[in-house]
Predict the 3D structure of the following.
Amino acid sequence: MRVMRAIMTDAIHVLRALALLVIAVVPMSAANAEDWIGLAKEHRIELDEFTFGTGETLSSITMHALTLGEPRRGDDGEIENAVLLLHGTGGDAASLLRPRFGDQMFGSGQPLDITEYYVISPSNLGHGGSTKPSDGLRAAFPRYDYDDMVRAQYRMLTEGLGVNRLKIIIGTSMGCMHSFVWGPMYPDFVEKYVPLACNAVEIAGRNRLMRQIIIDGFRNDPAYDGGNYADPANLIMGQAIRRDVLLLAGGNPYRQAVDLPTRAAVERYFAAAKQTFASNPVDPNDTIYQFDASRKYNPAARLHEITSPVLWINSADDFINPPGIGNPAALASTMPNARFVLIPPSPDTYGHGTHSRPDLWMDELIRFLEENP
């Protein structure tokens, strides 16, 4: 019986840890996002003549978005209650509509109560249901960057949804970085920003190394064929390299020490993780573009131009944005109305994935909204 209890305990640890892995790194279309997704309205917005920063053009691009709530117009006829949610790298419009985020944000009396707010959650350029390399152009797709992605968001709002101002942008990871692009690019468009889990300096060091390993893992896979592969699953080496990088980058070592307390538990966890990733292969071209899009990101010198209130939250157990790198507290001080919060590590946090757990930063958000009504 003692042996059986030990086996069952290990199994519970493995299943719990694997669940955390799926939360951190599997696109939300593959997760349980049924509750708020079921209430959402779907939009496919065509934007004509889109010009990229490289000078390349497409005659049109499609932006896919999900919305909750209804637009409300003020005395000037403009929509006055719009909120923009911006997902992370590899995510989509459903990423921030999952129950673990939405159940604490969108309900009655909650910060983004959908009876009060018009919540807009797009699949960003290169992601989800929006225009992306895997739609047909493959590796000939224009090499977009974060500036291009923000311009596509702006045009989606203004041309497609009739939104000419935003109450709030809440962005996680890549979406967090997009917040710092939005501010200088479209001043006075956004009343408040809540960037979660990112930095505001050039993507270099370990962060860029992580991205380059994933990019080269796919490009150097024998099955890549210059981006003309027949089946994403055939790129076994590239998919495995992405898996292993994200396994290391997406976790919280404190939580893993609790959930994976033995070598045997780790081995079973890794075996189960390999099966999970194998059953959810990503498109290599889409992934290469997604991880490369940050190559020109470096907003530090223009942060002072963001005069709207900002609540910037990072977590100290974030492998991707560890404390001490980029000095976000100092950068926050260059913005006239910004406050930086660093969540301490514990077995209750989720590493980089802490950004999608409002219970861990809800008090700060409520305080911010009360101070900036």
